[in-house]
Write a structure and sequence with these properties.
Elements lengths: L2 H4 L6 E11 L7 E8 L3 E6 L8 E6 L11 E10 L5 E7 L2 H4 L2
Antiparallel strand pairs: 1-2, 1-4, 2-3, 3-6, 4-5, 5-6
Amino acid sequence: MNKSEERREQSRHPVNAPVRLRDARSADSGFLCSLKDASRSGVALVLDRQPEVGSSIQLEILTANGERVEPELPARVVYTTPQDDGSFHVGCEFRLPDDAAQ
């Protein structure tokens, strides 16, 4: 168990949903990844690339038929863990909109 999981105060709920992740400071459209679980304070994602710990991101939850669920969620990457299959398990904490600009 890593330090982020040890400090967890909210229960996690399994989820299997597509998510578009993008750098909060970029106009780039981002890339698709998978949402694995969620709590009131954050999410765990599975990505095919490793984001930088501490980076500010925007998460766009998508429905099964690809429609965007409003609003986008500002978050910060807290940890990344490489997996045996080459993917990365990424923990993110939600941020208030005012915090996301930092």
